[in-house]
Design brief:
By secondary structure, the chain is mainly α. Helix content is 67%, strand content 2%. A two-stranded parallel ribbon has the order 1-2. Helix 1 crosses helix 2, helix 1 crosses helix 4 and helix 3 crosses helix 4. The longest helix is centred in the C-terminal third of the chain and has 33 residues. The protein is globular, with a radius of gyration of 20 Å. It starts with a helix and ends with a helix. It comes from Chryseobacterium formosus. InterPro entries: DUF4254. This is DUF4254 domain-containing protein.
Length: 203
């Protein structure tokens, strides 16, 4: 089983485990051993899955404004954890390929392996939920057919993205692509960088 097949399997295991209780309050119970990539991938998708459902909840038109504000802050915190974990995965790949010497004409990819994996994790969630809609008995036949058509596109995208990730990793291993990582440096959560936050502190 190649890397993307393994990642896809782990992502879907995380999604299925979450939907046992289907609650954003559920604590993660990671089944994989410490210090393994599998454990990191499971944790990554669990964050994505919880955030997916937080985004659903906050779009309720009747939500209490106070609850919505708290949810927005929870989502911001989740986004930061997601970014931190993606960067941790890139660090894992950097260590894995630390002894690879890129060729003199090696290219730099626009996307790091971990951010491609991030898209694969989100795609697993899209496939899961679109499949539910394509088979929802309470929906109209037209709705189910439309969702099935979208699901087919998502599954094609999954194959293409998986192939692209494998090609990228192979190119890095062969020295054809230089792995270079730039931190996201998000500013909105940083009290020293967000003007709204640091101006409040100065008052």
């Amino acid at each position: 089983m190649n890397f993307t097949d393994t990642a896809w399997k782990i992502f879907n295991q995380s999604i299925e485990d979450y939907h046992v209780l289907d609650s954003v309050e559920t604590s993660v119970k990671n089944p994989f051993e410490s210090d393994t990539l599998e454990r990191i991938l499971y944790a990554k998708n669990w964050i994505d899955t919880v955030q997916w459902h937080l985004e659903d909840i906050i779009r309720d038109e009747n939500i209490d404004p106070v609850e919505a504000l708290q949810l927005k802050r929870t989502i911001d915190s989740s986004n930061q954890k997601r970014t931190d974990l993606v960067e941790f995965i890139d660090s894992w790949f950097l260590d894995k390929y630390k002894n690879i010497t890129p060729k003199s004409d090696a290219k730099i990819n626009t996307e790091t392996p971990a951010w491609a994996v991030d898209r694969l994790s989100i795609l697993a969630l899209k496939v899961y939920h679109m499949s539910l809609e394509a088979n929802r008995e309470s929906a109209s036949e037209e709705h189910r057919l439309n969702c099935q058509a979208k699901l087919n596109v998502l599954l094609t995208q999954k194959e293409d993205l998986s192939t692209s990730i494998i090609q990228l990793l192979t190119d890095i291993e062969n020295g054809d692509v230089k792995m270079k990582v730039y931190k996201q440096m998000k500013m909105y959560n940083d009290e020293s960088l967000n003007p709204i936050l640091y101006q409040k502190e100065q008052k």
